[in-house]
């Protein structure tokens, strides 16, 4: 019987608690503030980090059959109000036949602190309290307590970059509020719940954690199914419920939705969701693989990849149509593109498995990666322009500019790396499928993207009719090479602007210094190659460039990332802002973008920000929300995942009263948007 197990745990807890005061706690708490200088009239966020010892666990707000959450008796200064703690998504753990809602790993509880506007700047607002919680293993439970405190002083509300990043990571682990209510009904000993959730939302190993106490039998089996755009949960009840029920639906992999359920009609059960299994949806796999290959092929037509392709075009022209050389380079190019895409996919899956909220093109969300790509782009531009002839500077460019297998491989690798920020037709859904497929099935999809990028050169290498259409080597190649420096220079300019928008003036000065000293070094190198300059001067300039690069890298690593400011007329996206906008009863248009996403910027310039579209939106009362993913944002990453995507762009249209958003195409037109608005 469950009550016997509960009595046994209670007895163990009483015995263990007699010596708890004589030793340190098994779960170590620490109270930290996002801003230690909160502004009067504003708020800051507190995090109570809880670090269990190995084999120990803490509890969710509703601990289940035999546990309880954390409670704090605050000693707050006058003018300081602490809101209740918000809990991350828990795990279900059955011990002795009882269900426990637990955390078996380090976790953080978040609470907002409000500072009254009457508080005088400079006032000491040090906050303290006595925290009580239950720590358990599979054999023993110990009630624990500790004094927690954090030093605060009324100030300007500034938040350090490292603190913001850390708190964003914790916020990403909180359940996202569902902007629509579900329903519940009781049928005999069974209680049924209906949660509105679009069919496109990825869900794996679902579990409904009911916050309302003494309503369900926590240890009873939960039968979870999908009926269209609703998740149906059926389980055994053990109590009466009146009015709304608070709950949390775990979607899998630490993702969850908090929601309210009102008494009402629940649809019939649908297709069962059984959680993770060894099998996969083969139709999804083959569709995603085909979409990735075709999407990669289409990327060759986009400006993201074109500057890199110019390198390979020159190489193929130099080969003069030699069949063997063309085949070798084509295979090497394919290997470089496919392996790079596989490597990026493996890193992405590894980061997500480690709990990081990242998506495709994650490398361009970090200024250091953008800085190194800028260095490479400047070196390639100057080489194509003829500033220096021997590819002896810039590792990636030197390798890419070589002929044969090595040159083909590194050009393919560079093309795949640079192509990842682009998300053309078919790619969004294809890469989104990797969120729900096991790693061994997801990796071939990433490889398929690289294969698609390489398809044109693979065809040229192995189809003589295509290869014979290539122009013969001649003087035109020198002119063509210099013309190809133009798109590469534009790529370097775009990277410099991106670095500035990511990091502000620090990035701007870093880009300027890199341009000046890289150009100086390569000009000097070129003069030395032509017998007009001194190698010692070149070496001196190279040392200055190295020193400048190291200093810039250190500054970029430490500097506060700032939100890139988009030229949009919408408000900033957040789950709360979306819920507020939908509550107005007006149409809501949500789009997710990034400064490094050329597809996004093309849609914004060509459709979203067009005057005619904005006028119709204004006339029809359309609320526009913009999610900027330039620097990465865990909340946006989770929102993308909830709609089956792990890349941008993503466009959502919420019609008034609709239960779910409509996912719009990745290529927008003004007519499409005005038609949606009813213009």
TrEMBL record:
For the keyword Signal, the answer is yes
- Name the predominant localization: membrane
GO terms for cellular component: plasma membrane
Please name the InterPro entries in this protein's record.
Answer: Cyt_c_assmbl_TM_dom (IPR003834), DsbD_gamma (IPR035671), DsbDN (IPR028250), Thioredoxin-like_sf (IPR036249), Thioredoxin_domain (IPR013766)
Transmembrane intervals: 283-309, 330-350, 370-388, 409-433, 439-463, 483-500, 506-525, 537-557
Q: Where in the cell is it found?
A: Cell membrane
Limits of the Thioredoxin domain? 554-679
GO terms for MF: protein-disulfide reductase activity
What does the UniProt keyword field contain? Cell membrane, Cytochrome c-type biogenesis, Membrane, Signal, Transmembrane, Transmembrane helix
Listed PANTHER family: SUPPRESSION OF COPPER SENSITIVITY PROTEIN, THIOL:DISULFIDE INTERCHANGE PROTEIN DSBD
Any idea what this protein is called? Answer: Thiol:disulfide interchange protein
């Amino acid at each position: 019987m469950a009550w016997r197990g509960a009595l046994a745990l209670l007895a163990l807890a009483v015995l263990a608690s007699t010596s708890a005061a004589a030793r340190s706690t098994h779960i170590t708490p620490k109270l930290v503030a996002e801003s230690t200088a909160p502004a009067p009239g504003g708020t800051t966020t507190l995090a109570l980090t809880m670090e269990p010892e190995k084999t120990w666990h803490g509890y969710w707000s509703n601990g289940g059959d035999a546990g309880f959450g954390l409670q704090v008796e605050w000693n707050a200064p006058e003018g300081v109000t602490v809101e209740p703690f918000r809990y991350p998504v828990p795990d279900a753990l059955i011990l002795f036949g009882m269900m426990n809602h637990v955390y078996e790993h380090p976790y953080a509880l978040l609470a907002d602190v409000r500072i009254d506007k009457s508080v005088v700047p400079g006032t000491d607002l040090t906050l303290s309290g006595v925290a009580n919680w239950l720590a358990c293993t599979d054999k023993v439970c110990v009630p624990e307590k500790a004094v927690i405190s954090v030093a605060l002083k009324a100030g300007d509300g500034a938040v350090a970059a490292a603190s913001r990043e850390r708190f964003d990571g914790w916020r990403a682990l909180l359940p996202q509020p569902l902007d629509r209510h579900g329903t519940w009904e009781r049928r005999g000993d069974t209680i049924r719940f209906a949660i509105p959730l679009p069919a496109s939302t990825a869900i794996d190993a679902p579990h409904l954690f009911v916050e309302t106490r003494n309503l369900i039998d926590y240890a009873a089996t939960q039968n979870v199914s999908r009926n269209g755009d609703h998740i149906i949960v059926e389980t055994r009840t053990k109590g009466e419920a009146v009015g709304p029920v608070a709950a949390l639906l775990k979607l899998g992999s630490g993702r969850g939705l908090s929601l309210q359920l009102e008494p009402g009609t629940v649809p019939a059960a649908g297709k069962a969701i059984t959680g993770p299994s060894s099998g996969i949806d083969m139709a999804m796999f083959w569709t995603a693989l085909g979409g990735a290959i075709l999407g990669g092929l289409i990327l060759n037509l986009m400006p993201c990849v074109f500057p890199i392709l110019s390198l390979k075009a020159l190489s193929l022209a130099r080969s003069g149509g030699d069949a063997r050389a063309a085949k070798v380079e084509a295979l090497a190019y394919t290997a470089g593109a496919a392996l790079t895409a596989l490597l990026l996919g493996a890193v992405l899956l590894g980061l997500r498995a480690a709990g990081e909220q990242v998506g495709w093109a994650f490398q361009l969300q970090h200024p250091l990666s953008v800085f190194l790509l800028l260095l490479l782009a400047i070196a390639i531009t100057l080489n194509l322009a003829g500033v220096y002839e021997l590819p002896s500077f810039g590792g990636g460019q030197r390798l890419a500019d070589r002929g044969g297998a090595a040159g083909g491989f590194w050009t393919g690798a560079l093309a795949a790396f640079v192509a990842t920020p682009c998300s053309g037709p078919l790619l969004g859904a294809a890469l989104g499928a990797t969120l729900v497929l096991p790693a061994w099935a997801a990796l071939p999809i990433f490889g398929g993207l690289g294969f698609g990028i390489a398809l044109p050169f693979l065809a040229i290498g192995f189809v003589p009719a295509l290869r014979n259409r290539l122009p013969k080597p001649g003087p035109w190649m020198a002119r063509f090479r210099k013309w190809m420096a133009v798109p590469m220079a534009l790529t370097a300019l775009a990277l410099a602007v991106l670095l500035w928008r990511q990091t502000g003036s620090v990035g701007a000065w870093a880009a300027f210094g890199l341009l000046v000293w890289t150009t100086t070094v390569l000009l000097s190198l070129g003069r030395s190659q032509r017998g007009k300059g001194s190698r010692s001067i070149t070496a001196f300039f190279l040392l200055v460039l190295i020193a400048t690069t190291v200093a810039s890298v250190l500054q970029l690593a430490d500097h506060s990332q700032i939100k890139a400011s988009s030229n949009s007329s919408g408000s900033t996206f957040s789950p709360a802002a979306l819920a507020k906008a939908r509550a107005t009863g007006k149409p809501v248009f949500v789009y997710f973008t990034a400064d490094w996403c050329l597809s996004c910027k093309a849609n914004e310039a060509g459709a979203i920000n067009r005057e005619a579209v904005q006028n119709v939106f204004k006339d029809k009362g359309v609320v526009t929300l913009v999610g900027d993913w330039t620097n990465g944002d865990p909340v946006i990453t989770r929102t993308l995942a909830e709609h089956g995507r792990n890349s941008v762009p993503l466009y959502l249209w919420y019609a008034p009263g609709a239960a779910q958003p409509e996912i719009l195409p990745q290529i927008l037109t003004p007519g499409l948007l005005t038609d949606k608005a009813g213009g």
